[in-house]
Amino acid sequence: MLLEVKDLKVEFHTDKGVTKAVKGVSFGMNDGEILGIVGESGSGKSTLGMTLMGLLPGTASYTGQVLFDGADMAKMSFEELRQYKGDEISVVFQEPMTSLNPLIRVGKQVEEMLTLHVNDTQDDGRLHEKLTKAQRKERVLEMFRNVELPEPEVTYRKYPHELSGGQQQRVMIAMALMCSPRLLIADEPTTALDADVQDQILDLLKEINRKQGTAIALVSHDLRVIQRICQNVLVMYKGEIVERGTVDQIFNNPQDEYTKQLIDAIKQEPKQSDLDTADTALEVKDLTVFYQIKSEVLGQKPRKKIICENMNFEVRKGEILGLVGKSGSGKSTISRAILGLHKDYTGEIIHHTARPQMIFQDSSASLNPARKIGWILEEPLKNQAKYWQRQARAGAKNIPHIYTPEERKAKVLDMLRKVELPEEFVNRYPRELSGGQKQRVNIALALMSGSKFVIADEPVSSLDVTIQDQILKLLLNLQKDLGLSMLFISHDVNVVKRVCDRVIHLG
Amino acid sequence: MKKKRNYNLIIGCIITGIVLLLALVGLFWTPYPTTQMSLELKLAPPSIAHIFGCDHFGRDVFSRVMQGMGTTFLVSITTVSFGMIVGTIIGFLAGYIGGWFDEIIMRINDVLNAFPSILLALVLVSFFGSGLLNVIVALGILFIPSFARIARSEMLRLKGLQFVQSARLIGDSHGRIIFSQILPNAYTTILASAAVGFNNAVLAEAGLSYMGLGVQPPDASLGRMISEAGSYLLKAPWYAIFPGVAIIVLVLGVALISEGVSKID
Predict the structure, then answer these.
(1) Phi/psi at A42 (5° precision)
(2) Chain B residue closest to A362 (CA)?
(3) Are residues B214 and B130 in contact, defined by beta-carbon separation less than 8 angstroms?
(4) Measuring CA to CA, which of A41, A178, B13, B37 is 20 to 30 A from A493?
């Protein structure tokens, strides 16, 4: 057995008391095994990974045993641990951009692994002989070829920001593999990447496992990632392992209630469209969106950076149109142009419904942190009231009923019920809510002004799978009940298939 | 869940509270009239009857410290409030509007910043004439740039956030976005720097009065007392020490509050 974890408990000591992140977990890993650890945020899966690496912060403490090759890691001295890290165990993190030093060329950073571990006295025939500079570089280039980085010689001299996200992650993997570790811990290695790049990285990990026999512990929230390369799976929930087994067992015959939910959430049937109307809610004709880039030299004409060219599409009434594209393909900028938040475009955007609204991706950032939910949700109504009062004073006819403050409060409560949140949330601050709850508030905010056309920009991509499922169901229900038309932006093909009537792809 | 006590805030409030109480009482009642002179008590050392001793006119130092704290507190609080309100509005507008407007405002700011503040206050006071009101106005103007700069950077940080875009989508006016949506998020930062500003104001007022440009005799001000006490430092050290300690305590209390406010999340 390569790695054995016995009754591991991890606690965090904070100002607010003790949080138990991992509550008694035991499992083992064999040489060359790929083990998936799946769970949502807060399940303790990342804490588990950190413990195995000995990277727990000072506020955490653990009990139980972590045996690597039979040796208890808790009993090791700092020096011994340092030997293990990098040499025997190494790690790949979620965010390659923040894990790489932005000021050092990537080749040098990978080489650092060799310089660090070359002077070690213990000699077991692996990387402990002295290497010359040229030899070290040769090793790095060879590793770059192994992880399929393009033009190793050129890449060697590049800075992290000059590489794409996928390439950065390959560099991280190269660094992790430099000393031929026996165990690789990959903590959400593909979460920050686009779908097709994700697949490439996963294939690479699998290939490394096959060729070098490196055991991999893959920590992920995404069951599809686990399914693609793992042999065995641990399902974690609230700090405990609720189910374990081979990938086949877990996927085809899940026993635990939570596992079933997880599997259900990704096995959704694609939506059957039954729309038969020709009325449009939004028409986009010959839309070209660009950014003005200010010139740094005086007198030079500003340049244009084109985001998309000559787009034509329409959203019919009651339809959910999917807009799919990789990151950087301009999805969000297009939606901002449609909403009038981005002015630099040519072509026509014709709205056939009043007050288009938006549900933003990052549910935390789109709610004012200093205001209570009730205040936030009432704001659109206050603005409407003010608008009509001004109109009335100016002598306009056909003024609709202007809501009184009491009616506005009642409408806020009504909307909270519609998005299935308890009424007492009016007195909560956004930071007191979970991600899924915040996204419900966002949906409520978008619908508050009675808008019939909504743009949803990656509304679920920052949420856990089971929460995603709930939010999507809510969106679909509200869309049907209120007869909304929707432009649904996402990078996730599976989500789009489930929700949308039609899909257009961005290059 | 047990919340960790904010000791900075608590202790700061207690100290400032005591000082304020003394100053408030000093407005209506002091152990001795602040202008009552007496030849035999000239530079009398601290005693039971006069716990802080007496000054060169035989006036009770404790009574004068009480009154002086009131004056100093009033000057500082009005100065800082004036600088904070005007500075915040200017900084917010500069940050929100941006472009040439921002450029002009911030360059004027830089010009004001380029002078040592006490020097500028001297110029203003000698131009308008000395006196309490002029000191307040002069110091108030001096405090605008620092608040404007802080408010502007807060605005730049906050205006790019998504909830501001969201506010535009639901039809908020610019005024409402600035003052209802963004301002509440900047409170702690601005208030924390207001407390630091308060301390500077206390010291600046003391400094100006020390040079004879602030509060005019026979009214008491902590700075003025220290200035007068300078000539008797060796003969009657208590005359300088007690007003000095009063300034230190006042500044310490508010500094602790400032520290505490910035720790509130």
Answers:
(1) 90, 0
(2) B162
(3) yes
(4) A41
In order of A350, B20, B70, the CA distances from B209 in angstroms are: 68, 20, 14
Determine contact, residues A283/A356, Cβ cutoff 8 Å. no
Over 70: is that where the pLDDT of A124 sits? no
Domain with CATH 3.40.50.300 in chain A: 3-266, 280-392+401-505
| Closest CA of chain B from A452, distance in Å | 13
Contact A387 B171 (CB under 8 A): yes
* CA–CA gap between residue A225 and residue A222 (Å, rounded): 5
Q: B163 contacts in A (CB within 8 Å)?
A: 365-369
Distances (CA, A) of A410 to A374, A404, A416, A426, A451: 10, 10, 10, 11, 18
ipTM: 0.70
pTM for the predicted model, two decimal places: 0.73
Higher pLDDT, A219 or A16: A219
> Which segments in chain B show pLDDT lower than 70?
1-4, 34, 36-39, 41, 43-44, 49, 217-218, 264-265
Model confidence pLDDT, tens digit, residues A43-56: 888 888 888 877 77
Q: Is A369 near chain B, with CB under 8 Å?
A: yes
Per-residue model confidence as pLDDT tens digits over A201-229: 888 889 888 888 889 999 888 888 888 88
Estimate the crossing angle of helix B117-128 against helix B132-159, to 10 degrees. 140
A78 pLDDT above the threshold of 90:
no
Residues of B in contact with A342 (CB under 8 A): none
A144-167 pLDDT, tens per residue? 888 888 888 888 888 888 888 888
Residues B265 and B185: beta-carbon distance below 8 Å: no
Name which of A341, A355, A383 is nearest B165 (Cβ-Cβ): A341
Residues B72-92: tens digit of each pLDDT: 888 888 999 999 999 999 999
Give pLDDT, residue A296. 65
The topology under which CATH files domain A3-266 is: Rossmann fold (3.40.50)
- Taking the Cβ of residue A15 and every Cβ of chain B, the question of whether any pair is shorter than 8 Å is answered with yes
Q: Could you give all domains of chain B from N- to C-terminal order, each with its CATH number?
A: 7-27+52-263 (1.10.3720.10)
Backbone dihedral angles phi then psi of residue B34, each to the nearest 5 degrees: -70, -20
Which residue matches tokens 């790690």? A91
Instruction: Give the chain B residue whose CA is nearest to the CA of A444.
Output: B170
Using the beta-carbon criterion (under 8 Å), do B3 and A16 form an inter-chain contact? yes
Q: What gap in Å lies between CA A39 and CA A44, rounded to an integer?
A: 8
A280-392+401-505: CATH number: 3.40.50.300
Which residues are registered as beta bridge partners of A240?
A: A237
Which chain B residues are within 8 Å of A379, Cβ to Cβ?
167, 170, 172
Greater confidence, A297 or A186? A186
